[in-house]
Amino acid sequence: MSGRRHPDEAPPGATPDAPGPLGRPDAPGPLGPLGRLRLGRLEAPAPVILAPMAGVTNLPFRLLCRSFGQGLFVAEMVAARSLAAGNEATQALLRHDPSERPRSVQLHGVDPGDMAAAVRTIRQRDLADHIDLNFGCPAPKVTRHGGGAALPWKRDLFRAVVGAAVAAAGDLPVTVKLRLGIDDEHLTFVEAALAAEAEGVAGLTLHARTAAQHYSGRADWSRIALLKQTVKSIPVLANGDVFSADDAAAIVRATACDGVVVGRGALGRPWLFADLGPAEPLRPNLGFVLDVVRRHAEGLIGFCGSEERGLRELRRHMGWYLRGYAVGGAERAAAHSLSSLADLDRLIARLDPDQPYPGALAEAPRGKLGGVRRPRLPDGWLDSR
User: Fold this and answer.
1) CA-to-CA distance for 105 and 90, rounded, in angstroms?
2) 102 with 70: CB under 8 angstroms?
3) The dihedral of CA 10, 16, 22, 24: what is its sign?
4) How far is CA 312 from CA 292, 339, 340, in A?
5) Which of 65, 137, 257, 304 is catalytic?
6) 137 is catalytic
7) Is-contact 221 238, C-beta < 8 A?
8) How far separated are the first and last CA of the chain, in Å rounded?
9) CB 41: neighbour CB atoms within 10 A?
10) Which pLDDT score, from 0 to 100, does residue 121 have?
C-alpha cells in the first residue's frame, strides 16, 4: 500500500536562483495534522526525520536536505564500540555544522558497556541533541554479530543495551529504531517496543519489514498502526516506502503515526523535505535538479578536501538525481565517471535544463531493493530468547 497519486502530466518546477524551502506558508502539507514532534526534552521543528544511510547522510547531504525543509536530519550510523574507543574515523562521521540544530546521531552495538560509554562520550563532548539506537539494520556485517535487527530476539540483552544508553544519556533524548523481526517466524517488534518504552526511551521508529525482507516487497504499514495502538506514552514514527508527499500522507492516514522517517525516498531528491512541509509538491525541471547537483558537488568538495574525492562521492548520487529524466547513455556514463567540477559543468552544459518533471518515474522506489534472503546470525542465535 502506498497511496501514490501521479498526474498524467505534472507541470515542471521553476528553477529559483537559490533553491530553498518552497511553497505557501499557510498550506498544511501532508504532515500538517501531526503538528510538532516532541522527543523527551527535544521539540523537533517538524514531524519528519531523515534516516541515516551509510555513505549518503554525511554533512553536505544533510545540509542540502535541511535547506529545503525542517525536521531531524540524522548523521550516518556509527558503532558504539568504535566511538567508545576513540576511533577518529568514527568521530568524523558525527561532525556537524554549527547551523545544524537540532543534531541527531545513530548508534548500533551489542554490549551495554560499550553503548553506555559511547552515549557518555556524545553527552560529555556535546556531539548531539538526540541519540537514536539502531535495532533495525539488516546488513550482514551487523546482524552476524547479533546487532541491528537481530538483537531484539535476545530479550534480556536488548533491554540491557537500551537501559544502559538511557541511563548514560541523562536528559538527552534516546530513541529506538526497530524492524518487525528477523523473519515472519521470529517477530519481535511489539515486545521490543514495550521493553524500550519501559526503559525510558523518548520515541520509537518502526520500519515495517523484517530483516529477511531487507528492502524487498512492500512495507506492512498495518504493523505500524498496531504498534501505535499498543504503545501509549511515547511517539511512534513510521518508516518504509515513503517516496513522495502522497506516500507520506498515506502512511499517516494508515497508521495514525506521530511522525514519518524518510530514507531511500530522499536519494537524489533532497527537495522532498519541501514537499513534506507546508508547500505544494515540487515538480522540478532538469535545470532545477542540476542546480542542486552543483550545490551538492561544492559541499562534497569542501567536506572531502579535494575535487577528485568530492566528485567521486557524488558519482553514487548521479543516477538517483537523473532518474526519470531523458538523459542519453553517453551522458549517464559521464555522470558516473566525474572527477572534477569541470567534468560536471561540461555534463550540465550538454543537458536540456527545460526538460520537464518526469512524474511517476521520478517518484518510484529507489536505492536498495533486492529479494528476500536469510539473515546472517551468530551460531545458535535463534535457539533461545
Assistant:
1) 12
2) no
3) negative
4) 17, 6, 9
5) 137
6) yes
7) yes
8) 32
9) 11
10) 96
Pairwise CA distance, residues 270 & 292, whole Å? 9
Any residues with CB less than 8 A from the CB of 196 and at least 6 apart, and which? 162, 176, 178, 204
Buried-state track 315-344, b at ≥16 Cβ within 10 A, e below 16: eebbebbbbbbebeeebeebbeebeebebb
Q: CB 246: neighbour CB atoms within 10 A?
A: 18
- Cell (9 digits) for 241: 516506502
Give the CA angle between residues 340, 296, 266 to the nearest 5°.
135
pTM of the model: 0.90
**Helix (H/G/I), strand (E/B), else coil: 181:** strand
pLDDT at 337: 97
Cβ-Cβ contacts under 8 Å for 232 (sequence gap 6 or more):
none
- Residue 39 makes CB contacts below 8 A (sequence gap 6+) with 130, 173, 175, 202, 203, 235
pLDDT in tens, 332-361: 999 999 999 999 999 999 999 999 999 988
C-alpha cell at 48: 519528519
Distance CA 104, CA 96 (A): 9
Q: Collapsing DSSP states into helix, strand and coil, what is residue 201?
A: coil
Instruction: Give the Cα separation of 31 and 28 in Å (integer).
Output: 7
Q: What is the largest CA-CA distance in the chain?
A: 61
Kindly give the residue spans of alpha helices, DSSP state H, lying in the chain.
59-66, 80-84, 88-93, 112-124, 140-143, 155-169, 189-199, 221-230, 245-255, 272-275, 286-304, 307-322, 329-335, 341-350, 360-363
Q: What is the CA radius of gyration of the chain?
A: 20
Residues of the chain below pLDDT 50 = 1-27
> Checking DSSP bridges between strand 37-39 and strand 104-108, what pairing results, if any?
unpaired
